Amino acid sequence: MKPKSNASEFLKQMQRDLNPPQYEAATYTGGPLLVLAGAGSGKTRVITYRVAYLISVLGLAPWNVLAVTFTNKAAREMQERVQGLLGGMPRGLWIGTFHSICARILRMDGKAIGIDPNFVIYDTADQSAAVKRARAQCQMEKDNRVTPAQLLYQISRAKNRFEGPDEYAAKADSPFDQDVARIYAEYQKILRANRALDFDDLLLECVRLIRSVSSVGDVYRKRFHHILVDEYQDTNIPQSLLVRELARGHGQVCVVGDDDQSIYRWRGAAVENILFFGRDYADLKTVRLEQNYRSTQMILGAASGLIQHNKSRHVKTLWTEGETGEKAGIVRLPDEHSEAYWICGQAQRLHEGREKAAYGDMAIFYRINAQSRLFEEECARRGIPYTIVGGLAFYQRKEIKDVLAFARLLLNPADVVSFERIVNIPRRKLGEKTVQKLIHTAGDMNIPVLEAARRANEVGATAGLSPASRAGFEEFANLFEHWQSLAGRLPAYELVEKIVVESGYMKLLEESPDPQDEARVENVKELINSVALFEEKLETPAPLDTLSILQQYLENIALISDVDQMNESGDALILMTVHSAKGLEFPYVFMAGMEEGLFPYRRAVESPHPEDMEEERRLCYVGITRAKKAVYLTYADSRQLYNLREKTLPSRFIDEIPPKYREHIIWNTDLDSWDNEPDQREEQEESVPHTRSRRDNRFSPGDMVTHRTFGFGVVLEVDGEGDRSYITVEFQEVGRKVLAQQYAKLRKV
Ligand code: ATP
Ligand code: MG
């Protein structure tokens, strides 16, 4: 690597790019350093410049520096920034998450404590499978006092206290705990036999290695002259121990963080690590950063006012020289559909209006993943490119594809792809080869594959199927025959519900110990919900039968998935949970679903522990402080999440934002069309209820109409019926526009 500039030039650049406390933090080398500072004050920037400073000015070799970030994405970004500052790639520099760094150390040197360099890393699903087997081996598979997920939670807690199975057993004072200890021991045996480490093991084994094998520990202690950690408020105990072990001797460790942004307590993060950092490090130097460079004064005021409602926190000052900006926009909407409609409409206005904002400069945050579906649909409908971060697009999720495969096969008994996907879910002991045999036979006989399954007994001889597989296929086909017979008598969503239940799919998810499957259950319910809503919206002259409704629904989805795929990259609106937004920034932020029970989430609302509510409030603080130019918080009067519509109350967090930093935006339906009107907000009393125009005059092509803004025009096309229809109008003055009838307030002339 060739440094772009010499040391003194780089120092000058640092003086320009950093304020005095930031500069001090980036260049301090007198020992342990803590930067405890609020959001957007440049903590990550300090770490980045510090890495470059150590290499470029102090002349450290890149491999002498270890920088730890919270996500892999953050690691990549830091790497690129450092590269830019240095004018080249510093070879040997380690920037990564704790898990990736530990995995790397263990691959290189884990042999010393008996770890195979080719170990595999078990994810949650693998862990669940392992703990189930462990339970079975202890002859406790029928024991339903705890679920596998709870067992894993216990095991993880024990590991994080550095208790192996023996220590756990020694401490176990109830027969129940002794049972857990036995399962824990078995679980570890299984992991070892499979040469596997789980996520906790990566950290623990690495700490053990560094601690217990001094020859290895010394190598790393000598190697990393400087250790830097971002987002230190969300580290857990083993992570803080690892830092301490590595820094033992030189003590050149710099951690940065914000206790107000600690949002992973539920996953074992210990905010005490940052609050009591000085306990473990003598001669600690603390630097505070108080200037925020990210957000407008209004956004900062809103966020600071909110977080002041937390009792247990370090009080921090945060100010900005930035613009005053606009107050946080609070938008009340009738329901979750109008919420998606409004947010995406606003995004479109920001994009097409005078702001000319790129879609990539906007993000929609939600509390839980199941909220994403409506935003996806609305984006797709409006042709807004979007990307989902940290989760699969709703309709591409495995569980959704599985359920849809049942529906597809019901409609099309010859759909081999769907057949293959689900014939063995839940398990019917139909192996890959057996399934292929049946598919071939169906092809030879020129009958639909589902038909072949139904006649498995008859065709089984030709296909060479065992009696067990014949029975399996018949059982599968009988289900479909049963659903066919129900088709005329049920609404489509009930049919889908029956499919999900009677196929055993729901049970499979519900009983799974994999925590991911909990979310899957919710997603499947959300899918059923979306069929119900789709059906509700159809206002066809003659009532359609169940199967044609289902058919239409599938078609509708197929279109959405196509749009998804087209827009995976480029300038796209970003959809993500608030949790995954940590550390990021966007000019425009929408926070959706600001309602009691959703954000703050149910669990915290019901919890007797005030800490739970404080964590939700920190999460909200993280969300708001991501915004640079504008933030909008939306809530709906009622929300149907899963299959239940409920009246909702606005989030307490909205009230906790001081009134001078927020304003209620009234949904001005006149402007809510697909044109590029500039955003016109009306400042009005907070309590003005949202009004929505409802007119039931119907339009047909050829009608002459007037619109308040666009004037006179002729209706060209009407898509859909009633309130939810879209009307294409050729206006005399402004040309062709597509308007939502519900909001367009067109008048016939
Ligand atoms: P968070 O708490 O959200 O992690 P942070 O404290 O890590 O935030 P950064 O992300 O480092 O803050 O900085 C916030 C924004 O302010 C970034 O866009 C960064 O480039 C900018 N910034 C930070 N310090 C300065 C500075 N001295 N001059 C100009 N811009 C700055
Ligand atoms: Mg940061």
Give an overview in words.
- This protein has 749 residues and is of the alpha/beta class.
- It has five domains: 4-110 and 212-289, Rossmann fold (3-Layer(aba) Sandwich); 120-194, Arc Repressor Mutant, subunit A (Orthogonal Bundle); 328-385 and 570-687, Rossmann fold (3-Layer(aba) Sandwich); 396-543, PCRA, domain 4 (Orthogonal Bundle), CATH 1.10.486.10; 704-748.
- It contains 31 helices and 22 strands.
- Helix 16 (336-352) crosses helix 17.
- It is globular, with a radius of gyration of 30 Å.
- The model is unreliable at 561-568 and 673-696 (pLDDT under 50).
Q: Tell me about the largest β-sheet.
A: 7 strands, parallel
Strand order of the largest sheet: 11-12-10-13-14-9-17
Strand content: 5-15%
Small molecules held by this entry:
adenosine-5'-triphosphate, magnesium ion
On the 0 to 100 scale, the average pLDDT is 86
In whole angstroms, the N-to-C terminal distance is: 74 Å
Number of strands: 22
CATH architect. name of the largest domain: 3-Layer(aba) Sandwich
Q: Which CATH class of the largest domain applies here? A: Alpha Beta
Name the features:
Rossmann fold, binds magnesium ion, six-stranded parallel β-sheet, 31 helices, seven-stranded parallel β-sheet, 5 domains, 22 strands, alpha/beta, binds adenosine-5'-triphosphate, 749 residues, single chain, Arc Repressor Mutant, subunit A
Task: Give the helix/strand layout.
Blueprint: H1 7-17, H2 20-27, E1 33-36, H3 43-56, E2 65-68, H4 72-86, E3 94-96, H5 98-109, E4 120-122, H6 124-137, H7 148-160, H8 165-171, H9 175-193, E5 196-198, H10 199-212, H11 214-223, E6 226-229, H12 237-247, E7 253-257, H13 272-275, H14 277-280, E8 285-287, H15 297-307, E9 328-333, H16 336-352, E10 362-366, H17 372-382, E11 386-388, H18 398-411, H19 416-422, H20 432-445, H21 449-454, H22 456-463, H23 467-486, H24 492-502, H25 505-511, H26 515-537, H27 546-566, E12 573-577, E13 586-591, H28 602-606, H29 610-624, E14 627-636, E15 638-641, E16 644-647, H30 652-656, E17 662-665, E18 704-707, E19 711-719, E20 726-731, E21 735-740, H31 741-744, E22 747-748
Parallel strand pairs: 1-7, 1-8, 2-3, 2-6, 4-5, 6-7, 9-14, 9-17, 10-12, 10-13, 11-12, 13-14
Antiparallel strand pairs: 15-16, 18-19, 18-22, 19-20, 20-21
Helix pairs in contact: 2-3, 3-4, 5-10, 6-7, 6-9, 8-9, 10-11, 10-12, 15-29, 16-17, 18-19, 18-27, 20-22, 24-26
